[in-house]
Amino acid sequence: MVRWSSLVISTLGLILGSIFLFQKVNGETAIHPVFIIVTITLAQGLMYWVGSKTLDATFQKPIHNVDRIINMMGTAYSDIFSEGTAYVDGEEWSARSEIFISAESEIKVISRDGLILTVEAVKSSNS
Fold it and tell me: Which of 15, 28, 67, 74 is the most exposed place for a label (fewest CB within 10 A)?
């Protein structure tokens, strides 16, 4: 209710202000009032739509779960120790490990802290 009342009040204020702002010397309006009403109503409608969509997007919960990456397998792009790069689930991630992992090794994601993955080397069955 507050949204609509604020929108109506601000639209009326803009229309009245524009009609009185643009006047010729003899007192008539310089711009036709219908043009002012249509233009301001369209502009206010657009601003309301953009603003409401922006607020809806701002307060929307994420639709994806970033923690789904935990326990996934991937590949070390670079040597990983205190820091490095890993490729997991089609994305490149910053990664760290407590033990040295050489580039091109298979890795498993142990945890995620922001955009940094903690990984461990996967022991190959061929060894």
Answer: 28
